[in-house]
Amino acid sequence: MNQKELSDLSDEELIEEAKKIPPSPTLDAFFIGFFVGIIIFGVAANAWGFLAIIPLFLIYILLKKSKRLDALNKELANRKLR
Predict the structure, then answer these.
(1) What angle do CA 64, 29, 49 make, to 5 degrees?
(2) How far is CA 20 from CA 10, 27, 47, 48, 72, in A?
(3) Are 82 and 73 in contact (CB under 8 A)?
(4) Which whole-number Å values give the CA distances from 40 to 7, 27, 53, 57, 61, in the listed order?
(5) pTM of the shown model
(6) Pair 14, 75: CB distance under 8 Å
(7) Over the stretch 5-16, which tens digit does the pLDDT of each residue have?
(8) pLDDT band at residue 61, thresholds of 50, 70 and 90?
(9) Residue 11 contacts residue 80 (beta carbons within 8 Å)
(10) Hey, how many other C-beta atoms are within 10 angstroms of the C-beta on 11?
């Protein structure tokens, strides 16, 4: 959901959307570091292949979640709901 779609939501829908995505930056940072460690180990063990793609995909998901949460918080701040 991009910024334009967030601006189309009503105040109640925006608050409900914010409740669906709980902020957990410490946990997200831990998992990103863990997945990067798996990739580095795979490269060091010459096992670069399909198993290295899975952590990359999971890192992408976690980064996408944090960007969505940032956009949601920005829209909430613009509407002075938080």
Answers:
(1) 70
(2) 15, 17, 37, 35, 11
(3) yes
(4) 40, 20, 12, 15, 19
(5) 0.72
(6) yes
(7) 777 888 888 888
(8) very high
(9) no
(10) 10
Q: Residues with Cβ < 8 Å from 17, sequence gap 6 or more?
A: 1, 6, 9, 72
Contact between residue 71 and residue 3 where contact means Cβ atoms under 8 Å apart:
yes
Up-side HSE of residue 22: CA atoms within 13 Å toward CB? Answer: 3
Q: Which residue has the tokens 């979640």?
A: 65
Tokens of 79: 């509407």
| Domain extents in the chain | 3-78
What is the residue-averaged pLDDT of the chain? 85
The predicted model gives 50-59 an average pLDDT of 86
- Please tell me the distance from the alpha carbon of residue 66 to that of residue 70, in angstroms, as a whole number: 6
Considering only residues 1 and 10, tell me which one the structure prediction assigns the higher pLDDT: 10
- Does 60 score more than 90 pLDDT? yes
